């Protein structure tokens, strides 16, 4: 029994083959590289003249509201802003989903996990309730 096993952790005598370790390291490196790529992404959404830009985590980084988008009052402007943000986040989800397919393979477990989490994180605006925000 090795000292590592004696303390209740580790491999319990099963040492993975070098090829298994190499594949695990390659997958980890690919995941780190993919995540770094996602952090560099930006996406834009538009709604009746309003333009919203979001970062790779979906946070609003820029918002352009032309005077023409304000002519119907505050509630209309608010609606346009929320629609533009939702459109930008939907575009971001598409970009992230595609990048996970490129990085891990379209049918991979990793791509499925990414896709499932995007469906939860960036729900379409029409699915949100009237008092619900992102």
**How many extended strands?**
3
Number of helices: 4
**Shape by Cα distribution:** elongated
Question: What is the makeup of the main sheet?
Answer: 3 strands, antiparallel
Helix content: 40-55%
Residue ranges: pLDDT <50 for 5 or more in a row? 1-8, 127-134
N- to C-terminal distance: 52 Å
Order of helices and strands: HHEEEHH
- Taking strands numbered 1, 2, ... along the chain, how are they ordered across the largest sheet? 1-2-3
Instruction: Give Rg in angstroms.
Output: 22 Å
Give the mean pLDDT: 84
What class would the helix/strand composition place it in? alpha+beta
What amount of the residues lies in strands? 5-15%
Keywords, please?
elongated; three-stranded antiparallel beta sheet; 134 residues; 4 helices; alpha+beta; single chain; disordered C terminus; disordered N terminus
Question: What does this 3D model show about the protein?
Answer:
This protein has 134 residues and is an alpha+beta fold. Helices cover 53% and strands 13% of the residues. It contains four helices and three strands, in the order ααβββαα. Strands 1-2-3 form a three-stranded antiparallel sheet. A hairpin with a 4-residue loop joins β2 and β3. α2 packs antiparallel against α3 and α3 runs antiparallel to α4. The longest helix has 31 residues. It is elongated and about 70 Å long. The N and C termini lie far apart (52 Å). The N terminus and C terminus are likely disordered.
């Amino acid at each position: 029994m090795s000292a590592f096993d004696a303390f209740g952790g580790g491999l319990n005598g099963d040492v993975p083959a070098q090829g298994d370790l190499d594949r695990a390291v390659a997958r980890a490196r690919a995941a780190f590289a993919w995540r770094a790529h996602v952090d560099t992404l930006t996406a834009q959404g538009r709604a009746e003249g309003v333009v919203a830009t979001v970062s790779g985590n979906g946070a609003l980084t820029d918002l352009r509201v032309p005077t023409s988008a304000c002519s119907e009052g505050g509630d209309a402007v608010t609606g346009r802003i929320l629609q533009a943000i939702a459109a930008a986040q939907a575009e971001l989800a598409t970009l992230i989903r595609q990048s996970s397919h490129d990085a891990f393979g379209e049918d991979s477990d990793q791509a499925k996990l990414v896709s499932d989490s995007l469906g939860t994180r960036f729900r379409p605006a029409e699915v949100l309730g009237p008092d619900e925000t992102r």
